[in-house]
Amino acid sequence: MKNDSEKKLSTESYKGVRDFYPEDMAIQNYIFSVMGKVAKKFGYQEYGASVLEPSELYHAKSGEEIVNEQTYTFLDRGDRSVTLRPEMTPTVARMVANKRRELIFPVRWYSIPNLFRYEKPQRGRLREHWQLNVDIFGVESIQAEVEIISVASEIMRAYGVKDSQFEIRINNRKIVNYILETLMGLSTETAGKVAKAIDRKEKVSHEVFGKMITDIVGEKDNFLLTLLSSKNLEEFVERLPEDGKLHDGIVEIKTLIQALEKLGISNVVFDQTLMRGFDYYTGIVFEVFDLNPDNRRSLFGGGRYDDLLQIFGEEKVPTVGFGMGDVTIRDVLETYGLIPSQKNSICLCICTVGNEHIDYAQELAQKLRAKEVSVIVDYSGKKVGDQIKRADKRGIPFIVCVGDDEVKTGEFKLKNLKTGEEKIVTEENLTSLLKN
RNA sequence: GUGGCUAUGGUGUAGCGGUAGCACAGAAGCCUGUGGAGCUUUUAGUUCGGGUUCAACUCCCGAUAGUCACCCCA
After folding, report:
1. Nucleotides of B under 7 A from a protein CB
2. For residue A400, which nucleotide's C1' is closest to its Cα?
3. Do residues A181 and A293 both lie within one domain?
4. Could you tell me the pTM of the whole model?
5. Residues A122-152: pLDDT tens digits?
6. β-strands A348-352, A375-378 pairing
7. Interface predicted TM-score (ipTM)
8. Is pLDDT above 80 for A3?
9. Which domain covers residue A228, as residue numbers?
10. Straight-line distance from CA A360 to C1' B68, in Å?
11. C-alpha distances in angstroms, A328 versus A150, A273, A289, A399?
12. Nucleotide with the nearest C1' to A302 CA
């Protein structure tokens, strides 16, 4: 029981998470439905899993720091360490590894899980978000990249974003890794730092970037700096030394660009500074980039990670996939004005004139519902004018009034609240009119 | 995690060391079988906790939340 000294409960949601009121939920559902529709069209099947995973799953792949400081991790009552999933990839890798011998490869799967990270929230970076994950397992050839990038492109188009409004940037981690580790002889750790620096190249000035590299490598490296400043793929290739491994990497990029071009996807560009984080990518990486002049930014991306299932002691399974966050895409759709207005799911409001007809109205409503019409009854007892006003405010397209006359004759005046138009109808043709 | 900025009815906003205004939204009515306008009435607020002061929404400190930059970005 409450008393005056008791503090009122806050109506705010938990820090960093969102409430979805019906209007927001409708948008969220729209965003998800487009994702699902496109993924299914490409033959991807939906899967799901619990938000809870044993913490070890992330220790195996991610660094200790990320697991300890940026996840929701706690002990359950049986002293097991549990983590709210911060990403879906380990989960899906686990699921694939678990059924490795039963699955028919290539496996095409998608999911739209909610993910958690324990971070200081700010705009566009919350503690809970949803992310479409699309992955294809078991394809070694570049066709997997062609397919996955097609899915990504098709989703953007399905939202109504024009090809001219975004571009797909691609790079090949094979080339970068080979240059850093084999040609330059850097340790895996140092190469990682350089990769991260390269990823930031676009954000900092030439001088600062040069200094960043010099600081990590220990001396000024003109070869790397020149290579990274290449304006296009041709220039990049010219500056590369003759080497079979590098050649293979370049061929992959060229093949991919040509194959996508043939599929009508021509907004693909090579970007030697694209890194996509660091850890598990082993080949082609890509990123969908918003070309909006006011707000040029990376929207989402993915790539090839062939070594992932190894943490489960399984042999490698070549995999290509991407993740697409709901917050970013929602922002883009808002910016471009691409969120369709949501239709009210309620089709009819039955207004009651006098309380004695409420039962009749309820029965009528029930008959209409049996025919799949969404209908509510206004049994407030307020004046008809008020009932209509409320129905209109709710965005309900049609009303009928039920009073003495209607009960007697069985005829109703169906009123369209948008146009104000009224039609006299019987109970039978009420359904057919409302279904249109 | 580090630093900056912000916090006023449900929403959006004024204001001042001395009685917190406005607009929209909500409720009631003008109008007991047909709405969208108008008018009238009305509900509702200084994020929380300390401090300075005769007096704090205002100044100071702390907490919380939001936001921006950095860090990180699975």
Report:
1. 1-2, 26, 28-29, 31-36, 64-70, 72-74
2. B34
3. yes
4. 0.91
5. 888 899 999 999 999 999 999 999 999 999 9
6. parallel
7. 0.87
8. no
9. 22-49+85-335
10. 59
11. 20, 22, 11, 39
12. B74
> Does pLDDT of A98 surpass 90?
yes
Say how many domains are in chain A: 2
Whether residue A8 lies inside any domain: the answer is no
Domain termination site, one of A335, A360, A379:
A335
Which nucleotide in the DNA or RNA is closest to residue A69, CA to C1'? B1
| Cα A212 → chain centroid | 33
How long is the CA A23 to C1' B44 vector, in angstroms?
A: 25
A17 within 8 A of A128, measured Cβ to Cβ = yes
Nucleotide B55 C1' to residue A8 CA (A): 29
Q: How far is the CA of A5 from the C1' of B51 (A)?
A: 24
Cα(A211)–Cα(A109) distance, integer angstroms:
43
Which residue's CA shows the smallest distance to C1' of B36?
Answer: A389
A292 inside domain: yes
How many Å does it take to go from CA A4 to C1' B20? 25
Residues A315 and A357 in one domain: no
Looking at the structure, tell me whether residues A121 and A248 fall in a common domain: yes
Distance (Å, whole) CA A86 – CA A183: 35
- Is A297 within the bounds of a domain? yes
Output the domain CATH number for residue A417.
3.40.50.800
CA of A394 to C1' of B26 (A): 14
The helix or strand, by DSSP H or E, that contains position A101, with its residue range, turns out to be none
- Residue A216's pLDDT is 84
Backbone angles phi, psi at A107, to 5 degrees: -90, 125
> Measured CA to C1', what is the nucleotide nearest A405?
B33
